[in-house]
Every structure is written in C-alpha cells, then in structure tokens.
Amino acid sequence: MKLNEIYEEYNKHFSTGILPYTKCMNCGKVYYYPRDSCPVCGKGDLKIMQSTGNGKVYSYTKFNNGFYGIISFSEGFRAYMDISGNNPQIGMEVEIKFKKIKDNLLPYAELK
C-alpha cells in the first residue's frame, strides 16, 4: 500500500466517525500514524484496521488553555491528540470523537 492510499483510507474512516490504525501483517505490530512500511520490521504488508475508539490517558500536558496527550488504545497503539474535558488524569478513560478543522475531520479524545 502506498502512503497516499493509506492517507485516503484514514480519511475515509474519519468521515464515518471511525478511528483507523495500521497493522503489519508480517510482524503483528500495530500503530496509528500513517506509514508505508512497518516501523519494526520494515515490511510493507500492511492492513488498515478499525479501532473501537476507546482508550485511556497515558500522559498529558496543558497548553494554551487546552489539554493534549498521548492516548493508549485497547488495540495496543498510542496516539497524540487533543483531550476534551476538564482535569484529565493518567488512566482516565476516553472516547474518540471527531471535529472539523479547516476542511478536515480530525480525531480528539473526550473524557468519559
């Protein structure tokens, strides 16, 4: 799969309210950020998967009156994104939602 095809697949998932992630079919590594080869084994045998959208705050920081953090998902990958809600704490459960920013739908984590 070429990188532009992976971005297209991610955007299709975003438009339906689903958080995608990538799984390497060679070594089994799962990760969020689009790449055209596995960051572990370097192979290009990749499959776009659908996340449940449920995760937990792994770490966070406050910046410009908002919160940003690393979310750890039940499927085994982590992603950095906005966190919506007050006073996030490590280990708090989140659900992925989407918001439109300049013509793009992008995921953010909403505290449960």
UniProtKB/TrEMBL annotation:
Which InterPro entries does this entry report, sorted A to Z?
Answer: ChsH2_Znr (IPR022002), NA-bd_OB-fold (IPR012340), Thioester_dehydratase-like (IPR052513)
Return any one Pfam family short name: zf-ChsH2
Domain ChsH2 rubredoxin-like zinc ribbon: from-to ranges:
17-46
Q: Which PANTHER family match?
A: BLR3430 PROTEIN
Protein name, per record: ChsH2 rubredoxin-like zinc ribbon domain-containing protein
Q: Organism source for this protein?
A: Ferroplasma acidarmanus Fer1
